[in-house]
Amino acid sequence: MILTKSIALSKEDLNNSSRRFTLYFPSDSEIRALIVYIHGGGLLCGHAQDLPALHREQLVGKGYAILAIDYPLAPQAKINTILDDVIDSINKCFEVTDFSSELPLFVWGRSAGAYLTLLASASKKLHIKLNGIISYYGYGFLCDRWYDTPSTYYAELPAVDEASTKIHDTDNVYRGSIDTYYSTYICKADRQVERLDIRRTR
């Protein structure tokens, strides 16, 4: 049987109360290891509860505990803020779960979460030993500056109007729907690519 526990960091821990964890653990077996799960969403959207039920059931059924974490999302948060938050969550994983720090620890990320997993594991700010990482279709290049260097390809496209990118809420957002920014940052660019391709073929 899978037990679920919601955990929130206090204001004293984080200087705000937005960060939450969801812990999945077995009720009837010894815990073999702790897995910190980092969700995907292109850094723009997503939440810790997006972990498919099949994964939860298979892993927890084998005795693994999963700590699914939220992290601040773009565009309100920049990459360094996002990464620092993820690293801090990993550093606190045994503290917030009350599990023994002697347990093996793995960090598992999907897509953008896998990218953050790889960056966090290579950071000197990570003060906790990892026994391994699980990367589900993450970005493979960590040091080519792709995330903060404008793409020459997309730079040729018409700019998205400023009104569409205006951020009304400047506080960190830890959970986001795909509908919030996808249409501005992804769909508009894709539609512009399609229009340019049509023009080029005429």
Notes on the protein architecture:
By secondary structure, the protein is of the alpha/beta class. It has one domain (2-139, 152-201): Alpha/Beta hydrolase fold, catalytic domain (Rossmann fold, 3-Layer(aba) Sandwich). It contains eight helices and six strands. A six-stranded mixed sheet has the order 1-2-4-3-5-6, sandwiched between helices. Strand 3 (33-38), helix 2 and strand 4 form a beta-alpha-beta unit. The model is unreliable at 188-202 (pLDDT under 50). Residues 35-191 form the Alpha/beta hydrolase fold-3 domain.
Quick structural gist:
The chain is of the alpha/beta class and 202 residues long. It has 8 helices and 6 strands; from the N terminus they run βαββαβααβαβααα.
List the helices and strands and how they pair.
Blueprint: E1 2-8, H1 11-14, E2 20-26, E3 33-38, H2 53-61, E4 64-69, H3 79-91, H4 93-97, E5 105-110, H5 112-121, E6 132-136, H6 152-155, H7 162-165, H8 178-201
Parallel strand pairs: 3-4, 3-5, 5-6
Antiparallel strand pairs: 1-2, 2-4
The number of helical runs is 8
CATH class: Alpha Beta
**SSE class:** alpha/beta
What fold name goes in the CATH topology slot?
Answer: Rossmann fold
Look at the structure and give the mean pLDDT: 82
Q: List the domain count as a whole number.
A: 1
CATH architecture descriptor: 3-Layer(aba) Sandwich
Bin the strand percentage: 15-25%
Strand order of the largest sheet: 1-2-4-3-5-6
Order of helices and strands: EHEEHEHHEHEHHH
Distance between the termini: 61 Å
| CATH homologous superfamily placement | Alpha/Beta hydrolase fold, catalytic domain
User: Major β-sheet, in short?
Assistant: 6 strands, mixed
Protein name: Alpha/beta hydrolase fold-3 domain-containing protein
Organism: Mogibacterium pumilum
GO molecular function, one term: hydrolase activity
Pfam family, one: Abhydrolase_3
